[in-house]
Write a structure and sequence with these properties.
The protein is mainly α. Helices cover 65% and strands 0% of the residues. Helix 7 runs antiparallel to helix 8 and helix 7 runs antiparallel to helix 9.
């Protein structure tokens, strides 16, 4: 039975049905996101949280010392990392590790790997786009990384069904969001919002997951604009979650950005693929 034909059932209810019993998000990363919602949180409190999971903290430090981060010296501890890199960067590294751990808890597949790389590519593009705005680059990286968390959750819950859907959408040039709603009773945007709400993520990140396929209106936040453009640029660079040529061109895609930012992005586009590929490789080598 297709639950989308039943008007009395809401999208959140349908999403919770298809995604129930997902593996938990890493508790230490979830707690870190919660306490840092307060910009005045003491650094000692952050250190205390990270010390509850020493293996996770060791991985954060390993990533902090990877080529992903252009640090001038070796980062030796949590407090040193916070002082050197800043809190938003630590949160972005923790989110990267926690999301990868969430995916690794199930059987590996080509579809999961492709979609994970798409998220990493989008995060890297968003980080670069943020430098044209008065907005934190690490916060944009995190938003880009999480924009497709609903797709990752559907893959984690139903790897065979969703993998076949991706293959069919590629071969038959189907509308993927529509197909998701037909097959899972919710598309990956609805699923992503629901998942991040269950994980108690900030509203702006829940909105990114829900609205990243929606053309930003006049009142849209810069974060939404950046992610909306970022995932499309990632597709153009060859990091699409659906293995088919990306539609559109860079000029049309960046039209959603404010001012003359789009022109500057177009000027830098040719070198962006190598930069994004380098960052993806840095993350993957550090997580081996």
């Amino acid at each position: 039975m297709n639950l989308t034909t039943e008007p009395e059932e809401s999208a959140p209810a349908r999403t919770s049905w298809i995604l129930k019993d997902l593996p938990p998000y890493r508790p230490v990363a979830r707690k870190l996101m919660a306490i840092t919602a307060d910009p005045e949180v003491p650094l000692a409190e952050i250190q205390k949280v990270l010390r509850t999971d020493t293996a996770f903290t060791a991985d954060v430090l390993r990533l902090a010392n990877s080529p992903l981060i252009s640090s001038t010296g070796v980062i030796r501890g949590v407090m040193h990392a916070i002082m050197m890199l800043g809190l938003e960067r630590i949160k972005s590294l923790a989110t990267t590790l926690a999301l990868k751990s969430f995916l690794a808890s199930g059987a590996p597949s080509d579809a999961i790997e492709i979609c994970w790389r798409h998220n990493l590519a989008t995060a890297s593009v968003c980080e670069k786009l943020a430098r044209h705005y008065q907005i934190d680059a690490d916060a944009c990286y995190t938003a880009g990384l999480l924009h497709d968390v609903g797709r990752l959750a559907l893959l984690r819950k139903s790897p065979d069904r969703y993998g076949k859907l991706l293959a069919s959408a590629n071969a038959l040039d189907l509308d993927l969001l529509e197909c998701e709603r037909e097959l899972f009773d919710a598309d990956h945007c609805q699923a992503g919002k629901w998942v991040l709400e269950q994980w108690e993520f900030p509203k702006e990140l829940c909105d990114v997951a829900a609205l990243h396929h929606t053309q930003p209106g006049p009142g849209a936040s810069d974060l939404l604009r950046i992610v909306y453009v970022g995932w499309q640029i990632a597709d153009l660079l060859g990091f699409s979650a659906v293995n088919r040529p990306a539609r559109g061109d860079i000029g049309a895609i960046v039209a959603s950005l404010r001012g003359n930012v789009g022109r500057r992005v177009v000027e830098q586009f040719d070198g962006l693929a190598d930069e994004v590929a380098f960052k993806i490789n840095a993350v993957e080598c550090s997580l081996v």
